[in-house]
């Protein structure tokens, strides 16, 4: 791969290679305690036009653990605030000889636009564009599940919450479909479900008790209010009563069902605190795996 903008149509072998590499890099850097030098002399730019805690930090750690230099572009202090166009910013930064740009933007399709407009050989990695794709999140979610439930052909995964606005859901579905997950269930209120024809792979549910019945993994999503223009939502208590993951609902799932969330979590709205922090929660494992998946992706696009 030269760029990673989406998991859509990525072959199973490519996804499995990235997951395998994430695990071998994790071992090679002794879980992050040892620095490697495979990307020594390379420069990675974090170009985040939307806020991020997990993705930005883990891309920075991943690049540093591979020996690369990292620049964190500060949008607030940049000339973007003086009206500089995105592609002028791109060309300006390219003139400083970058090897990879990790980009997050509210507009879907921005990573592909950067690929088309780039004038150097810079690699573009999507760190989340609008509601369309978050490919490294899809990979780290697949890796986290694989570490506990490697038999994807017998796996039922539920994704619950604001699916309509979720780039995580789209990339998860792309990854799970490619890897042969037996059943993907999508659950949420009608106004937060994807439009007809969007996400055809998932079986849709309105009733969370039915959706979670016998599930092996459940991925909870927050309400992305920043992407909702005109949707009237139920109040938070009513939403939690219908679509929140609490202990009673988790008991309907298969024993040991993996509890996952891409973060940031909103406690008491989509997930109860005792479940988010409970024995079945894999949420912090997802975060840890994010570093190794991002190392694998940087290694993939830059080791040429
Ligand atoms: N999962 C995720 O993308 O988290 P951040 O917004 O904190 O990067």
From TrEMBL:
Protein name stated in the entry: Aspartate carbamoyltransferase
Pathway field: Pyrimidine metabolism; UMP biosynthesis via de novo pathway; (S)-dihydroorotate from bicarbonate: step 2/3
Assigned EC number: 2.1.3.2
Binding-site positions, L-aspartate: 82, 167, 222
Provenance organism: Rhodanobacter denitrificans
Catalytic activity: carbamoyl phosphate + L-aspartate = N-carbamoyl-L-aspartate + phosphate + H(+)
GO molecular function: amino acid binding; aspartate carbamoyltransferase activity
Domain Aspartate/ornithine carbamoyltransferase carbamoyl-P binding: 2-147
Keywords annotated in UniProt: Pyrimidine biosynthesis, Transferase
Enzyme class, spelled out: transferase
Coiled-coil ranges from the UniProt annotation: none
